Automatic annotation (TrEMBL):
It is an enzyme of class 1 (oxidoreductase). The keyword Nucleotidyltransferase does not apply. This is Peroxidase. Removal of H(2)O(2), oxidation of toxic reductants, biosynthesis and degradation of lignin, suberization, auxin catabolism, response to environmental stresses such as wounding, pathogen attack and oxidative stress. These functions might be dependent on each isozyme/isoform in each plant tissue. Belongs to the peroxidase family. Ascorbate peroxidase subfamily. Belongs to the peroxidase family. Classical plant (class III) peroxidase subfamily. Residues 1-31 form the signal peptide. It is found in: Secreted; Vacuole. Keywords: Calcium, Disulfide bond, Heme, Hydrogen peroxide, Iron, Metal-binding, Oxidoreductase, Peroxidase, Secreted, Signal. It catalyses: 2 a phenolic donor + H2O2 = 2 a phenolic radical donor + 2 H2O. Its main location: secreted.
Length: 358
């Protein structure tokens, strides 16, 4: 008797084959990002971003480091969806108010300036989440670091995640194991931890982010033993015990405004500013030590790894296709007003003058 295949079996075969084909064609959402996404709709997007940052650098040499930090803090919460940029509204609790961001993240005004310039050139085209990705590349390049083709096509989220910002962002006071776990949770690895930490090769740090190392480290009554004694004395003068913690110093004491591999040679001399920085080298037996040594001895190797890690980070759960939106104003979801704007409107309707107008 001839064996015949039932129609249900054939149908099952067909469905499975179709699912495999669809998976191969579309893959994950990050696979939809590409470097030429705006080539036909906003071909000068990258140049506009770069020009705006160049202008900002004239009065604020640390703005590049601040912008790349915004991209980092955005991607680690809800993925790279621009959620960090949203202000408070009646329905949104801004991530800006989370302790890792409050009185810490900066550069939002430059993001707004970039977005305004892009809206003037090509309205409704470039997302705020892509602005952060483009601004990061331009900031690194303008500081003497590597350039790369930024993968684009992200769309902007419709909500913020204050709880996620409180729990998911690495802290300068955390141990290496905790920090690594937070990287792994978003699909990154140990090399990414070290390479992305290398962004601390430029920018500044407030006393509040490292004064735990200066006088009573981990309740010992003594400074952090992994902090270079000469640097310790200098930092104790900048950040006296029981001070407000608002003092500022360079993250990289060697070349504070240049993007290079000095950050890693600093770690080898116990000159890392933050606890989370120095632990990459001083945590004996950690896999990060060998990576630090390789980057310290070979800047090209660091640059290559940094570019790949930035691409990896930029691929964390992006919104693509029809998900999310392209915000007109990075601070608010389209059709909404921020809490500040709403208060101003109410004041005007009551015949009062906004403090912002005084």
């Amino acid at each position: 008797m001839a064996v015949t295949r039932s129609s249900s079996t054939c149908d099952g075969f067909f469905i499975i084959s179709l699912l495999i084909i669809v998976s191969l064609l579309f893959g994950t959402s990050s696979a939809q990002l590409n470097a030429t996404f705006y080539s036909g709709t906003c071909p000068n997007a990258s140049a506009i971003v770069r020009s705006t940052i160049q202008q900002a650098l004239q009065s604020d040499p640390r703005i590049g480091a601040s912008l790349i930090r915004l991209h980092f803090h955005d991607c680690f919460v809800n993925g790279c969806d621009g959620s960090l940029l949203l202000d408070d509204t009646g329905s949104i609790q801004s991530e800006k108010n989370a302790p890792p961001n409050a009185n810490s993240t900066r550069g939002f005004n430059v993001v707004d300036n970039i977005k305004t310039a892009l809206e003037n050139a090509c309205p409704g085209i470039v997302s705020c989440s892509d602005v952060l990705a483009l601004a990061s590349e331009a900031s690194v390049s303008l500081a003497g670091g590597p350039s790369w083709s930024v993968l684009l096509g992200r769309r902007d989220g419709l909500n913020a995640n204050l709880t996620g910002a409180n729990s998911s962002l690495p802290s300068p006071f955390e141990g290496l194991n905790n920090i690594t776990s937070k990287f792994v949770a978003v699909g990154l690895n140990t090399t990414d931890v070290v390479a992305l930490s290398g962004a601390h090769t430029f920018g500044r740090g407030k006393c509040v982010t490292f004064n735990n190392r200066l006088f009573n480290f981990s309740g010992t009554g003594n400074p952090d033993p992994t902090l270079n004694s000469t640097l310790l004395s200098s930092l104790q003068q900048i950040c006296p015990q029981n001070s407000s913690g608002s003092g500022i110093t360079n993250l990289d004491l060697t070349t504070p405004d240049a993007f290079d591999n000095s950050y890693f040679t600093n770690l080898q001399s116990n000159n890392g500013l933050l606890q989370s920085d120095q632990e990459l080298f001083s945590n004996s037996g950690s896999a990060t030590v060998a990576v630090v040594n390789s980057f310290a001895s070979n800047q090209t190797l660091f640059f290559e790894a940094f570019v790949q890690s930035m691409i990896n980070m930029g691929n964390i759960s992006p919104l693509t296709g029809s998900s999310g939106e392209i915000r007109q104003d990075c601070k608010v979801v389209n059709g909404q007003s921020s809490a500040t704007e709403a208060a101003d409107i109410q004041l005007q309707s009551d015949g009062l003058v906004s403090v912002a107008d005084m």
